TrEMBL record, chains A, B:
Cofactor note: Binds 1 FAD per subunit.
The FAD/NAD(P)-binding domain, residue ranges: 4-322
Residue pairs linked by disulfide bridges in the UniProt entry: C41-C46
Name of the protein in question: 2-oxoglutarate dehydrogenase
Lineage of origin: Bacteria, Pseudomonadati, Thermodesulfobacteriota, Desulfovibrionia, Desulfovibrionales
Key words, A-Z: Disulfide bond, FAD, Flavoprotein, NAD, Nucleotide-binding, Oxidoreductase, Redox-active center
Recorded family membership: Belongs to the class-I pyridine nucleotide-disulfide oxidoreductase family.
Cofactor: FAD
Species this chain originates from: Desulfoplanes formicivorans
Gene3D superfamilies: 3.30.390.30, FAD/NAD(P)-binding domain
InterPro entries: Class-I_Pyr_Nuc-Dis_Oxidored, FAD/NAD-bd_sf, FAD/NAD-binding_dom, FAD/NAD-linked_Rdtase_dimer_sf, Pyr_nuc-diS_OxRdtase, Pyr_nucl-diS_OxRdtase_dimer, Pyr_OxRdtase_I_AS
Active site: H438 (proton acceptor)
């Protein structure tokens, strides 16, 4: 039986980053992947959606200037051409991933892996179905997650779609019902809205972007309503049926409506099916998320990173966990995994970001909290884009920044700066000592950091 | 004679910031202004140009997607409407400035000031020409700068224009000759190019953006040439004449060409004319820049801040000096003024930023320098905007970041993050410990910080 210092299952942002770091460090490493290299993020997630939003941004820009009566115009998108470019770009990135793995001597094994014992896996070869047992000193499970569905709203992939289906539609539907107002629903909806699709958004929680600060949700809601989205919050969907090429959505209150297509984006589930976790006595929790200890260990010599451990379902969280685990394997650290704040963004015409704690989270922890904020309405960069709605909200405890949320045009550009401010727990004095260039959107953050706290 | 704790001459970003801080601190303060509140930045500089660039950004966005054959379209700008909006916005900001000064009890005096003695000024009332002498314990001169011209190229304000004239043109000229490839020429040129004007750019130095790193200049040049700018560097202009409503530009090598309008943006000179600096024995240097010591003192109890002292001709540099001077007056600091790196941006479709030192500057100081860089071509956000040209360049000395330059679509959004990295002298390890959200343009900075240094 061939054995490796390290076997990694899954080549998404977690598995790929782990393989690259392990290869550089000289570990004899194999990376097993049953699908396309790069995982959800590259193939059906962050990257395609950013490409679609970036390509259609001028449409939103034209509309913003038209609202101010400063300009008029239009842009027509060649959707098949955009999809081909997406495929080309994603394909090039897959190739780049493969090359960089080869460069650091990581062996790439195409096939589906399952645990055979606490020290070995079996790979079912993707081409010929042959099964091979491979031994490992260390194993990293980085298999990610997939869209999940409540009973009664499973996609048929024709009319009732998941986020992957929606990327490949041949033409913009006239109307689209989006079930779930998280990042996926909001980003996808904005893309199709720009192409002329009428959007109806249904969220079971009491507001859009329900994991964000309520003030953030409010600004997003206003912007979407202005863009003629029909929004229904606090209402659960009872069922979605495909009838005569239409999606018929029935809410629990009995209301029913029709749309050409429906996107179900209500959550994700861990990819653990068929992994045979029992062979190494690996525990799971909730929907099947792999239980990990403080060092991301799921069992002896077996780590789980990224979405599959259910900690933070974000690509950069997976990569960060990957880098930590390789240092842990190399005994460069024995500290528990403590990444500090993990930044998050929702992209589109109206963007939202968050890093660190919300006021509510800190109050729940029994901390005394103060808040300072700045509106974007006076910021010259926001004004120049005809996008004065939005704010930056800073959460303080004991004189230090504990969290920042922001919403508005282009605020995703503030995220790493906010991450640094929160991670380092800036004081007001620290913020005073930084020269902010003028005019920048960044000055809204400065204004929020220096504003009266209450 | 009425006397004040503090008199400030000029209400631009320096004078205004000083007045606000002084008022808050309870100093009996007067602010003297002969023109519109807000100075060059608000009325004829940073703010109007950002508004013009922001409003026309969709045009550049459409062109970028058209180049990729992903879309087609156009946007027509209502130039008079845009100018009216500029006037409205700028007017509202002037009003906001006035209100915030009133709120902290700063007395606003409209008129032209000149020094009468080392402890008093005379103000010539703007309305009635009356002259009043006012005494001060401390004086801040913050009179800013104005466009300067070489002999033979003075504007006639009809055909041969300065940057202020160019903001108010009633329609886009068919062709525009821009003399000077600094920030003003590049930003203004990009605005008019978007409206259809053919641009010819003449720079006497050997490259566009001559104060930036040569690698940055190269990327800008390529982008402008692709946008059909005619560019001539290393050639000085001998004269510009207005003939039959055309600007006739003659270079020193005898070449001559015609354009509908010419913009002369070759430099700036300090606004010291009529200030009667001799009354307080205040020294100047070069074109008349006021000489200041390490504490920004130009004489006993007389400070000079902002453009007029010639240190850094940027709005935020003036504001930062203002805040220092007020602390110095209040005896909260006796340290010499040491702002650290001052960030700078050039805006437009192809943006450039810089903070800290260039490699050349450090080498001249005898320091050992290494360089690391990342190209934007692989960044998903750059790709999504059809704008893969550009790079982030990091300059290191003794394991610490000493300067960062960047060029490309949207890189102005990196400026404050870069400022923090340079000001704090990040090490490679420090950069490794920050979680960068994915996908962001910020990741290009991460990649540059972690790239091999050479």
């Amino acid at each position: 039986m061939q054995t490796y210092d390290l076997i990694i299952i899954g080549s998404g942002p977690g598995g790929y980053a782990a393989a690259l770091a392990a290869g550089k460090a000289g570990l004899v490493t194999a990376l097993v992947e049953s699908g396309p290299l790069g995982g959800t993020c590259l193939n059906w997630g962050c990257i395609p959606t950013k490409l679609f939003l970036g390509a259609t941004e001028p449409i939103a820009g034209i509309r913003a200037q038209e609202r101010l009566r400063l300009a008029s115009g239009s842009m027509t998108v060649d959707l098949p051409a955009l999809q081909r470019r997406k495929d080309t770009m994603v394909g090039a990135s897959r190739k780049a991933i493969e090359q960089s793995l080869t460069r650091v001597n990581v062996e790439l094994i195409r096939g589906r892996a399952r645990l055979a014992s606490p020290t070995s896996i079996i790979v079912n070869n993707a081409d010929n179905g042959e099964e091979t047992e491979l031994g490992f000193a260390k194993l990293i499970i980085a298999t990610g997650s997939s869209p999940s569905f409540f009973p009664g709203m499973e996609p048929d992939h024709q009319t009732i779609l998941d986020s992957t289906d929606l990327l490949d539609l041949a033409e913009a539907p006239e109307s689209l019902a989006i079930i779930g107002a998280g990042a996926i629903g909001l980003e996808m909806g904005q893309f199709w809205e720009r192409l002329g699709t009428k959007i109806t958004l249904i969220e079971g929680m009491d507001r859009v972007a329900p994991t964000e600060d309520p003030e953030i949700s409010k600004v997003i809601t206003t912007a979407l309503k202005r863009a003629k989205w029909k929004i229904s919050t606090g209402k659960k969907v009872a069922s979605i049926q495909a009838e005569n090429n239409k999606a018929v959505v029935t809410l629990e209150d009995g209301t029913t409506f029709e749309a050409d297509k429906a996107l179900v984006a209500v959550g994700r589930k861990p990819n653990t099916e068929g992994l045979n976790l029992e062979a190494a006595a690996i525990a799971t929790q909730g929907r099947g998320w792999i239980t990990t200890d403080d060092c991301l260990l799921a069992g002896e010599n077996i780590y789980a990173i990224g979405d599959v451990n259910g900690r933070t379902l974000l690509a950069h969280a997976a990569s960060d966990q990957a880098e930590y685990v390789i240092r842990h394997i190399l005994e460069q650290t024995s500290d528990p995994y403590g990444p500090g704040p993990i930044p998050g963004c929702i992209y589109g015409s109206m963007e939202a970001i968050r890093t660190g704690f919300t006021a509510e989270e800190l109050t729940t922890q029994g901390k005394t909290v103060t808040i300072s904020r700045a509106m974007l309405s006076a910021n010259p960069i926001s004004q120049s884009h005809g996008a004065p709605a939005g704010l930056v909200k800073v959460v303080w405890s004991q004189g230090k920044v504990m969290g920042i949320s922001a919403v508005g045009h282009g605020v995703s550009h503030l995220i790493t700066l906010c991450e640094v401010v929160v991670k380092e727990g800036w004081t007001r004095e620290k913020a005073e000592n930084i020269v902010f260039a003028h005019p920048t959107l960044d000055e809204a953050l400065k204004e929020a950091l220096l504003a009266q706290q209450a």
